[in-house]
Design a protein that fits this description.
The protein is mainly α. The protein is built from six helices and no strands. The protein starts with a helix and ends in a 30-residue tail after the last helix.
Length: about 260
Amino acid sequence: QQLQLANLLLRIAPAEAPERSHTHTHRSARVKMTSSTIKGVNDISKELSSQANSSTAKSAIKWDAYNYPPLLSVIHYDLSELEGGGRRVVRWAHIHYLLVLVALLMNVLINFVLACGGVPDKGPHVAYAFFNVLILGALGLYGEYASFKGVGLGKSALMNRYLLLALVMMVAEFLFSLLAVVNWNGWLQALKARELNHPLAAFWCWAAVAESSVWTLAYLSGAVAIYHVYQFDRLGPLAFTSKAASRPKGKDKDKPLKSVRLSRV
């Protein structure tokens, strides 16, 4: 009888161990599921809070308060009304536009000095440079407003307009920084001016270096602005934040967050 009892205990013991192990594993899984669920709820609450803040910021923008450019006041433009990520995006577009304006005004000034110094054909070039300020300045202003309003309202159509316009202008700026044709004073003009036998040859050379340098900075900043606007259009307000990697991409970025169903633990 003792031998039979010992054999019975040996048969029962292995069966109890897996059951206890299974119970322990099940409890561990439930604990892990609980912590994961709580983390997911926290992430979703932060996302909803971010979207609520973004909606509040959109409604706080005073679109009818025309204040830009100074003295003209044809559009509303105020970086302080945007959230941190959007402000960073539009600031790069603003830097690009300012560099374009500086280069255009430098071109007018350089051609004016050369015309006053008696350099041939520079009289008409002053008029060309002035019209370039009006045309390219207006296009750049429209692009800057498209970036500001597109980011402020989260509209892809406006941001895409800026991307297309900025890309075209960036190609033009690259050519302006390089060529020595008509009224443009690119890097090649600096080389040509050194060989001229004219009292203003040295001035023209260094002025061309200055103008071409600003054009170079303009198209480089334009590339950075295009990247920032593209990323903001792709990722939304979470662009350039730690949450950007987990943000849905493409068409899914506009889908609402799915509700999380909590199960009893």
